[in-house]
């Protein structure tokens, strides 16, 4: 039945159902409503049933580096996610942006997101769900790593990933891997002689440092969520990156100093 206009707006808020057992959790089911917009609903599952789902690894607040001046101050405005049953739930700005980008990327299916799938107003349930978060990430078919929306630092990082890293990988391969005889530091002018490329300006390194200082890289739970994952995808804005390629990118940056 539809709700009457003018009624208490809290009656339209999502009402969580009590979980049947400690091994149960809820998932956000994302479907295509009209080929363009998403349709959302909550489903309750038992982790023991081996339900197929993804899990989101992200940050609640500002995803950017504190050193990133940005275009304007980051205000964590609340947004609403509207469910197919007419209910809504308030979520933070970074998560709302993630769901919007997922829509643009055409991502569908069941996903576990702590801010949505845990009843945050029920402290007992929240504490119980935190104790099984390791199982939630370990049982997920895939963990989606959301680094935040696109910004100048991510643009620098992805140009570097696409254009510079492949050339360095080829050079390392041709030279037989990292050896004391060769330097792979991006601050060493000799590297650019061997690459046949001009030296990278300091602004690029500043952008890389700012990108790697995004909140996700500084978050305490990151290590657990990634270590337990079977498969990982990285999303930043509408850029989709395979984890193996992203991990290699991080390793090469570390190798180069």
Distance between the termini: 62 Å
Order of helices and strands: EEEEEHEHHHEHHHHEEH
β-strand amount: 15-25%
**Number of continuous helical runs:** 9
Strand order of the largest sheet: 2-1-6-3-7-8-9
* Uncertain stretches of 5 or more adjacent residues: 1-7
Mean pLDDT: 86
Shape: elongated
Major sheet description: 7 strands, mixed
Radius of gyration: 22 Å
The helix/strand class is alpha/beta
> What percent of the residues sit in helical stretches (DSSP H or I)?
25-40%
Number of strands: 9
Can you give a write-up of this model?
- The chain is of the alpha/beta class.
- It is 36% helix and 19% strand.
- The protein has 9 helices and 9 strands.
- The strands form 2 sheets. A 7-stranded mixed β-sheet has the order 2-1-6-3-7-8-9. A two-stranded antiparallel sheet has the order 4-5.
- Helix 4 (133-139) packs parallel to helix 8 and helix 5 (152-174) packs across helix 7 (202-211).
- The model is unreliable at 1-7 (pLDDT under 50).
């Amino acid at each position: 039945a539809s709700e009457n206009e003018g009624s208490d707006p809290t009656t339209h808020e999502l009402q969580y159902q009590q979980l049947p057992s400690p091994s149960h959790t809820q998932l956000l089911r994302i479907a295509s409503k009209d080929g363009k917009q998403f349709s959302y609903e909550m489903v309750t599952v038992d982790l023991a049933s081996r339900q197929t789902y993804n899990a989101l690894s992200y940050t609640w607040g500002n995803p950017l580096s504190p050193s990133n001046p940005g275009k304007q101050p980051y205000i964590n405005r609340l947004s609403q996610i509207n469910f197919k049953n007419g209910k809504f739930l308030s979520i933070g700005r970074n998560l709302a942006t993630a769901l919007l980008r997922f829509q643009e990327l055409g991502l569908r299916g069941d996903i576990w997101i702590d801010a949505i799938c845990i009843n945050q107003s029920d402290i007992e349930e929240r504490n119980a769900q935190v104790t099984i978060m390791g199982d939630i990430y370990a049982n997920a078919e895939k963990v989606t790593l959301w680094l935040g929306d696109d910004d100048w630092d991510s643009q620098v990082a992805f140009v570097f990933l696409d254009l510079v890293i492949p050339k360095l990988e080829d050079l390392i391969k041709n030279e037989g891997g990292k050896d004391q005889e060769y330097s792979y530091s991006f601050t060493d002018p000799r590297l650019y002689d061997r690459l046949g490329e001009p030296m990278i300006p300091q602004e690029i390194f500043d952008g890389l440092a700012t990108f790697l200082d995004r909140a996700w890289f500084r978050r305490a739970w990151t290590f657990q969520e990634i270590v337990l994952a079977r498969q990982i995808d990285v999303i930043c804005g509408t850029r989709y990156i395979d984890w193996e390629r992203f991990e290699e990118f991080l390793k090469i940056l570390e190798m180069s100093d």
